[in-house]
């Protein structure tokens, strides 16, 4: 639990902000511990540990936002920062086109904590390194492999939010992840295979039990063998064909072409600095055909164990599950207390988060999930006469409206007459968001539905990094442009 000093400092921040003119104020304390471990070719390449703590104060003055923060836990400093936030709000008021109006939210006093079985920060460094060394050794046991990498990352965020409306919310969020990468260097190119996913592996709001469940060493030899074999595989052919995507690739497709375009600050042009705006318009609700009838996508920050789960967002709005796209038709944006009223909605859906105490919260996707269908990977492949099965993202590109995209995967296999055939190297597919989702004719069922955590979602200026997740099952898409990854 946060101590009395932190509570007193946040209360003082609110008192000062209101006394000098703020109509609304919140003070958000955040302390984060982190640990990262990297092993390469049987050697420990790095161990980093960090801790950071501070308080950020956000205020509304005459409908304009102001924000300031500090790492100094001192009453005089907190008073200065609260006054500075009000000054900034007053300075920005002349540039404001429309005064900010906040959607109503019932203030609560609450405590929420990630359920964990084993505290990752209590597990010895020797035990963690030993697991990574074993995985590295298994990778290196495969002849022809050049580089064997294994890694772990852990975070614990302890926050306390106090608002002038009366909310007092404390949260402790623990996140863990790990992964392995096999690199085989050839005469002209490098081939890579990752497990359980690329970009440092698979992450979850769980404790060290998550790391044990990944079975890194048990899967290492297979991954290394695939990396080596890719050098002898033919390149992915070019043309239009049917593709089947593994859940670990489809989760990134959801992230880039659904999650980001439905962030309402992008839609309204309030956030465009880091990765553009959106092709979706407020009037599209209830009418835009985003995909086929197979496509139902939800926003669910309550999903147990998922990396984007929490009890309350950084505006004190409780987590919930909501349908964004239902049977292919777009229904709802990701919103904040500021943006929801702009499009006539009465309440935020609780997606405002900041990656530290020193930055203002932004709309950030939590867990954006493609709901399962009724097919299976075996059935999709078995009923495909000619196509390609692709797995594990290695590269992506999408325009600033989130319309035109191309994705490269680490590996693929051809599908011929309902059977998986030759391995293919350097696979790539491209398309347009609505056309692509409209081409989906089958999704795997609940037993093949998996949630993958993504620890590196970037947005904002200055840039912020969010940890999010996506639940998906395998999916089949017809008449998609494929080719060789550049």
Share of β-strand residues: 35-45%
In the predicted model, the low-confidence regions spanning at least 5 consecutive residues are none
Number of domains: 2
Give the distance, in angstroms, between the N- and C-terminal Cα atoms: 51 Å
Mean pLDDT: 97
Radius of gyration: 24 Å
- Label the structural class: alpha+beta
Could you say which overall geometry the principal axes of the C-alpha atoms support? globular
What about the largest sheet? 8 strands, mixed
Describe the structure.
- This protein is of the alpha+beta class.
- It has two domains: 4-232, 2-Layer Sandwich (PmbA/TldD fold), CATH 3.30.2290; 239-484, no CATH class.
- Helix content is 21%, strand content 39%.
- The chain contains ten helices and 23 strands.
- It has helices at 4-19, 75-92, 125-140, 208-213, 216-229, 247-259, 264-267, 339-342, 377-382, 433-438; strands at 24-40, 43-61, 64-70, 109-113, 147-163, 168-185, 190-195, 202-204, 239-245, 297-300, 321-326, 329-330, 352-353, 362-363, 368-370, 386-398, 404-416, 419-424, 427-432, 440-443, 450-459, 464-472, 475-484.
- The strands form five sheets. Strands 1, 2, 3, 4, 5, 6, 7 and 8 form an eight-stranded mixed sheet that branches. A five-stranded mixed β-barrel has the order 9-16-17-19-23. It has a four-stranded antiparallel sheet with strand order 12-11-10-15.
- Strand 6 and strand 7 form a beta hairpin.
Keywords:
alpha+beta; single chain; 21% helix; 486 residues; 39% strand; 2 domains; 23 strands; 8-stranded mixed β-sheet; 10 helices; 5-stranded mixed β-barrel; PmbA/TldD fold
């Amino acid at each position: 639990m946060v101590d009395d000093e932190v509570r007193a400092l946040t209360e003082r921040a609110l008192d000062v902000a209101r006394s000098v003119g703020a109509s609304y104020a919140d003070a958000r304390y955040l302390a984060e511990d982190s640990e990262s471990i990297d092993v390469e070719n049987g050697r420990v390449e790095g161990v980093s540990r960090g801790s950071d703590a501070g308080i950020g104060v956000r205020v509304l003055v005459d409908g304009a936002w102001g924000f300031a923060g500090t790492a100094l836990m001192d009453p005089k400093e907190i008073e200065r920062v609260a006054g500075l936030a009000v000054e900034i709000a007053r300075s920005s008021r002349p540039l404001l086109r429309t005064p900010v109006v906040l959607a109503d939210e019932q203030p609560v006093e609450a405590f929420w904590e990630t359920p964990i079985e084993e505290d990752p920060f209590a597990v010895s460094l020797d035990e963690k390194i030993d697991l990574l060394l074993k995985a590295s050794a298994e990778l290196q046991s495969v002849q022809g492999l050049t580089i064997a990498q294994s890694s772990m990352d852990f975070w614990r965020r302890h926050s306390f939010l106090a608002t002038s409306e009366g909310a007092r919310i404390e949260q402790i969020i623990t996140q863990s992840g790990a992964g392995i990468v096999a690199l085989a260097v050839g005469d002209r190119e490098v081939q890579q295979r990752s497990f359980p996913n690329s970009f440092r592996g698979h992450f979850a709001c769980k404790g060290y039990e998550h790391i044990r469940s990944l079975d890194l060493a048990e899967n290492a030899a297979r991954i290394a063998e695939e990396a080596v074999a890719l050098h002898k595989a033919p390149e992915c052919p070019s043309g239009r064909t049917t593709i089947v995507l593994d859940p670990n690739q489809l989760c990134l497709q959801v992230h880039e072409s659904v999650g980001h375009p439905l962030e309402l600050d992008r839609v309204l042009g309030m956030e465009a600095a880091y990765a553009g705006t959106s092709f979706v318009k407020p009037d599209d609700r209830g009418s835009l055909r985003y995909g086929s009838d197979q496509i139902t996508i939800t926003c669910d920050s309550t999903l147990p164990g998922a990396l984007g789960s929490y009890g309350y967002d950084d505006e004190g709005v409780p987590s919930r599950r909501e349908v964004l796209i239902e049977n292919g038709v777009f229904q709802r944006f990701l919103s904040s207390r500021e943006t929801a009223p702009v499009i006539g909605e009465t309440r935020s859906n609780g997606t405002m988060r900041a990656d530290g105490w020193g930055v203002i919260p932004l709309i950030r996707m939590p867990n954006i999930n493609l709901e399962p269908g009724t097919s299976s990977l075996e059935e999709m492949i078995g009923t495909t006469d000619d196509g390609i099965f692709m797995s594990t993202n290695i590269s992506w590109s999408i325009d600033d409206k989130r319309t035109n995209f191309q994705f490269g995967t680490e590996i693929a296999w051809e599908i011929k007459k309902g059977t998986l055939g030759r391995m293919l190297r350097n696979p790539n597919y491209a398309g347009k968001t609505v056309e692509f989702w409209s081409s989906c004719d089958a999704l795997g069922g609940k037993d093949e539905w998996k949630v993958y955590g993504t620890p590196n979602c970037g947005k904002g200026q200055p840039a912020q990094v969010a940890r999010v997740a996506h639940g998906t099952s395998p999916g089949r898409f017809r008449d998609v442009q494929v080719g060789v990854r550049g």
